[in-house]
Amino acid sequence: MFWLLVVRALRLRLQRVAVVFAALTVGAAIVTAMASVYFDINAKMSQELRTFGANFYLGPGHGNSLPESMLQPIIDGAPPGLINAASPYLYGMVRTELQKVVLMGVWFDSLQQLVPYWQVKGDWIGVNFDDRHAMIGIKLADILHVKLGDTVTLVEGNKRKALQIKGIVEAGDATDNMLILNLDLAQEWLHQPGEISDAMFSVNNDLGQVDAFAGRLQRQHPELDVRPILKVSASEGQVLDKIKGLMGLVSAVILILSSLCVNTTLMAIVGERSREFALQKALGASARDITLQMLAETGIIALAAVICGVAIGFVLAQVLGHAVFNASIALRAPVFPLTLVLSLLVAAVAAIVPVRRALRVVPALVLKGE
Prior knowledge:
Shape: rod-shaped
Radius of gyration: 33 Å
Number of helices: 12
Strand order of the largest sheet: 3-4-9-6-8-7
Distance between the termini: 23 Å
Largest sheet: 6 strands, mixed, barrel
Structural class: alpha+beta
Helix content: 55-70%
Order of helices and strands: HHEEHEEHEEHEEEHEEHEHHHHH
C-alpha cells in the first residue's frame, strides 16, 4: 500500500512533479559541472600558468657559481611528477668577430617549457648536444646585423667556432641581448667546466608544493640560495583560490534557488492533497507514515534528477573546459557522490516545511461534511 500511494501521488500530479524534477535537475547539473571543473582545475590551471615560465630558482649562496654536479641529484630526488622541467644557466662574456657579447648556456631540451612566453622567429633548438647552432636575442641580432641562417663566429686567439643562428628570441628582458648556446659549449668558451651560474625549475604548484620543496631543499643544502619565484608561484594559488571560490558561490546560489523552488512546489502539492492526508490519518496513518511517504516521493524525484543532472552537468563541464582551458574536463570520482548528497540534502531541506504542514492537517476539519 505504501509504494502504491507513492507511485499514484507522482503519477497523478505530473505537472507539479515536473517542476520539482526540473529544479533539482538544474541544481544537480550545476553542481556536477562546477565540481568537475573544481576537482580538475588544479591540473588545468597549473598547466595554463606554466606559460608564465619557471617558478623556482636555485643559485649559489655565496660566490657566482655552483657545481653542475649538484643539480641532477636534486632533480632525481624530487617527488615523482613534481618537476616539469629544469635547466642550469651559465652567463659570461665572449668575443665574436665583431664585438664582445653576453653568452648564456642552457639545456635546450628543457628551455621551451621554462620560457614558453619567448617569441621565437625561426626554430627552437631541441637537443642539448647541438654545438653547431645557437639562438640569439632580437636586440643583439640587430646590433650584429644577423638574420636567421646567418653565422656568428666566436673568437679566442687562434680558436674559432662558427654557429648558425636557428632562432631569434624576443623575450622582453635581458635575454634579448644574449647569445644562447648549449651548456657544454658555453662552459668550454667561458673556461668554467662543470660550473653553472644558477638553475631554474618549473614545479607543479597546484597544491602549494613550491614552498614545501623550497623548504626541504634549503634544509638539505643550506649553502644554496633556494627560493620560489613569487610572482609566478603566488599567482597560481591566488588565481586558483578565486576561481574555486567563485564556483562554490555559484553552486550555493543555484542550490538555494532550487531548494526554494522545490519548497514552493511541494507546499502547493500538500495543499492539493490535504484531504488525502486527512483520510490517511482518519484511517490510522501515523505521522511517521506520512513523513516517510513524502520523503520517499521527494527522494525518487531527486534521484531521477541526479541522474539527468549528472549527464547534463558533465556536458556543461566540457563546454567550460574547452572555453576556458581548451581541454576536456575529466569526471573525477568524488563528483557523483557529492552531487548525489547535495541534491538529496536540498530536496530534504525543501521538504521540511511541506511535511510539517501535512502533519498539521486535522481530519475533523478537512473531512467535515464528507
